[in-house]
Amino acid sequence: MGEVDLAGVYVHPLLIAAILAFVAAEAVGWLLGRLRLYRFVWHRGLFDVALIILFWAGFASLLNGGNVAALFG
Length: 73
What we know:
It holds the Pfam family DUF1656. Keywords: Cell membrane, Membrane, Transmembrane, Transmembrane helix. By secondary structure, the chain is mostly helical. It has helices at about 15-35, 45-65; strands spanning about 5, 10. The protein has one domain. It has two helices and two strands; from the N terminus they run ββαα. The longest helix has 22 residues, at about 15-35. It is elongated and about 45 Å long.
């Protein structure tokens, strides 16, 4: 897993995955708010953080070809 070249700047894939996770979690949070489904969530802040972490792990796994163990080792 190497770095990605974005206009001459080398960026680690986990940073790209984190940005994608934040955008996806914000979109899902907006949708949950519009559909008024947050009323079923006990603690909205914890739910949002967990959602970002789940998306981050998923995008990192996809960027790494599905090998989650190689991300942290």
